[in-house]
């Protein structure tokens, strides 16, 4: 994807019709021709006088005029009463805002025309309209100036009055000097694979909020800082002045590559705060932007394409049963938000029994998957598909790596270390309970298994959530021993001997570590996998090869979760805003102290289950060395 565009200086001639790279001279001749030929009144027979070349020129609704420089001033249309920039007005005497008003004035008496325009459905003009008729021009301009001042004060008040419960990524990052994980870390997210070299210094065209013109105008800004999808922008011409810097989502509809205004006929207007800084804005832009980088011309199209998702509502899938992890059930796609699926279990009549996951989650599969590999499956009481429901095509699901189980392979009873799906902050001593087809394994957490195996869970042999014996020891991670195991500190050699078991061979595990780009301290948006409908403000607090320790800002460390670097449950800063998903802000102190939600209580209860069995002094680094029987490692 092309990511840069050279911005070159064009000819300064304005005698012939042409477009400028910055849209500042677009349509000058056409406007002059129109105004010289379409007027029919004595007041508007003369052509618009040539505009001084030292002033910036912009286009607005087919008219071209200079931006106010303190000398041009304002004017009021004698036909409709509209107040605007004087140079934008029609005719030499600047009495009318448009050709239409000039014509109307010449064909009707001034008083009759104004009254006719002010009356609505036969009603007499309002008191405000009558005052406008009698006000002299100076009084109108003074009133307009006061009105603009009032609007500015209101805007400042609104900006300062941030809701107490509101959350802004921009403020959060600025006030704490945080760094966010780049979009390229998230291959499954929109633009994750085609972000290109969008970085600090890239120029874009954005709406100009520092302007009092009645129409929407634009100006050029540069990226000062990137935080995921969000960018801190500064208008060109402000140099080191950050007073009007603002955050916005780069993938939003109001951000465009430089040159978009010219091709779209939109006006470029310098911000009011710096309008007197330069007399020739075109020359300034040419100097500043020549050779600069901007967004690719097809950027918005790429954003749109990357947010098209193949899963549709009413598709049927097989998904893990959240009440019995050992089996799957049929569920129906109820909604798709940013690639995340809200699945409703097929037997749920009121559609409240649901499960959230990403479309690339390893927890969902095509219909028939469970039978094909020998996985437990809860048959639905519904004997046939409901009207409109249809099976999701198998090719839509994430493919796992093919494995060769013909040679040395995992066997039932082998020991390993695994992330506990019911307590994702813990890596536990685990056992392979059943070997399924196509490389899938049923695994149980030692010391906390149900007699019927209802809490076994399925991991693929290439899953980044299972590890060889000794992984935690080597990487100084606290290993959670079996519940009730009294011989602490836990030592694998002793445990294997006591249980008369062997460790799964190291060579069978996935040792691939991608160049993921994450660093400790980076901010992101992450799914709380214990309550998967929630996406929260989070931080990467530790990195072990491809394994990330995710901390939910505002919550205690016991709620942290171990997640793979390529997990589809991690998203760039700004993902929720881009997709319309609700972001959970950091929990305030009061909420942490008085937390009463069921999801957090469940997690805390599960955490307490292991609390008495965790080593509290020294950590993993102080444990005895892992001594295993020959051939195990």
Write the layout of secondary structure elements.
Layout: H1 28-38, E1 57-60, E2 63-66, E3 74-76, E4 83-85, H2 99-107, H3 110-118, H4 127-134, H5 137-160, H6 169-176, E5 179-180, E6 203-207, E7 218-227, E8 230-235, E9 246-249, E10 256-257, H7 260-264, H8 281-289, H9 299-306, E11 315-321, E12 324-337, E13 340-345, E14 354-358, E15 364-365, H10 369-373, E16 376-377, E17 390-391, E18 415-420, E19 423-435, E20 440-445, E21 457-460, E22 466-467, H11 471-474, E23 479-480, H12 492-499, E24 522-527, E25 535-544, E26 547-552, E27 561-564, E28 570-571, H13 575-579, E29 583-584, H14 589-593, H15 598-611
Parallel strand pairs: 5-24, 11-17, 12-16, 19-23, 25-29
Antiparallel strand pairs: 1-2, 3-4, 6-7, 6-10, 7-8, 8-9, 11-12, 11-15, 12-13, 13-14, 18-19, 18-22, 19-20, 20-21, 24-25, 24-28, 25-26, 26-27
């Amino acid at each position: 994807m092309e990511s840069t565009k050279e911005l070159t200086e064009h000819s300064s001639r304005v005698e012939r019709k042409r477009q400028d790279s910055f849209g500042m001279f677009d349509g000058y001749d056409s406007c002059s021709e129109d105004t010289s030929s379409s007027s029919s009144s004595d007041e508007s027979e003369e052509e618009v006088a040539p505009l001084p070349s030292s002033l910036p020129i912009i286009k607005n609704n087919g008219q071209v005029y200079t931006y106010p420089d303190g000398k041009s001033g304002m004017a009021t249309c004698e036909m409709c009463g509209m107040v605007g920039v004087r140079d934008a007005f029609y005719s030499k005497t600047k009495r009318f805002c448009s050709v239409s008003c000039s014509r109307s004035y010449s064909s009707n008496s001034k008083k009759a025309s104004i009254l006719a325009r002010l009356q609505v459905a036969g009603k007499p003009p309002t008191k405000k309209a009558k005052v406008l008729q009698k006000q002299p021009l100076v009084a109108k301009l003074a009133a307009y100036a006061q009105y603009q001042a009032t609007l500015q004060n209101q805007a400042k008040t609104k900006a300062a009055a941030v809701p107490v419960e509101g959350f802004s990524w921009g403020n959060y990052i600025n006030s704490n000097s945080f760094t966010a994980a780049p979009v390229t870390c998230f291959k499954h997210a929109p633009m994750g694979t085609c972000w290109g070299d969008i970085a600090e210094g890239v120029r874009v065209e954005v709406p100009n909020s520092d302007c009092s013109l009645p129409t929407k105008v634009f100006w050029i800004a540069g990226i000062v800082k990137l935080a995921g999808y969000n960018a801190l922008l500064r208008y060109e011409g402000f140099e080191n002045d950050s007073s009007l810097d603002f955050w916005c989502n780069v993938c939003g509809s109001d951000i465009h590559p430089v040159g978009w205004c010219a091709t779209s006929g939109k006006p470029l207007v310098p911000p009011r705060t710096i309008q007197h800084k330069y007399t020739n804005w075109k020359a300034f832009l040419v100097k500043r932007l020549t050779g600069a980088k901007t967004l690719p011309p097809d950027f918005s199209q790429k954003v749109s394409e990357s947010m098209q998702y193949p899963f549709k509502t009413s598709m049927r899938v097989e998904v893990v049963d959240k009440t019995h992890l050992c089996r799957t059930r049929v569920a129906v796609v109820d909604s798709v938000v940013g690639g995340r699926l809200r699945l409703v279990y097929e037997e749920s009549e009121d559609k409240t029994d649901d499960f959230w996951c990403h479309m690339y989650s390893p927890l969902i599969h095509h219909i028939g998957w469970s039978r094909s590999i020998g996985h437990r499956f809860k048959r639905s009481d519904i004997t046939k598909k409901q009207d409109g429901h249809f099976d999701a095509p198998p090719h839509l699901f994430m493919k796992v790596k093919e494995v060769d189980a013909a040679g040395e392979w995992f066997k039932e009873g082998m020991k390993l270390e695994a992330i506990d799906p019911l307590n994702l902050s813990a890596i536990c001593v685990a056992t392979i309970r059943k070997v399924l087809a196509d490389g899938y394994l049923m695994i149980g957490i030692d010391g906390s298994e149900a007699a019927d195996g209802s809490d076994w869970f399925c991991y693929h042999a290439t899953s980044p959530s299972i590890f060889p014996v000794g992984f935690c020891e080597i990487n100084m991670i606290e290993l959670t021993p079996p519940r009730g195991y009294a011989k602490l500190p836990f030592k694998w050699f002793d445990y294997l001997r006591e249980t008369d078991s062997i460790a799964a061979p190291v060579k069978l595990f996935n040792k691939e570590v991608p160049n993921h780009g994450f660093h400790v301290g980076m901010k992101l948006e992450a799914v709380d996998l214990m309550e998967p409908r929630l996406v929260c403000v989070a931080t990467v607090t530790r990195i072990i090869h491809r394994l990330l320790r995710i901390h939910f800002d505002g919550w205690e460390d016991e709620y942290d979760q171990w997640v793979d670097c390529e997990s589809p449950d991690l998203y760039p800063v700004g993902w929720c805003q881009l997709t319309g998903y609700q972001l959970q802000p950091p929990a305030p102190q009061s909420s942490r102290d008085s937390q009463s939600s069921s999801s957090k209580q469940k997690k805390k209860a599960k955490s307490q289950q292991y609390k008495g069995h965790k080593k509290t002094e020294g950590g993993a680094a102080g444990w005895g060395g892992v001594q295993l029987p020959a051939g195990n490692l």
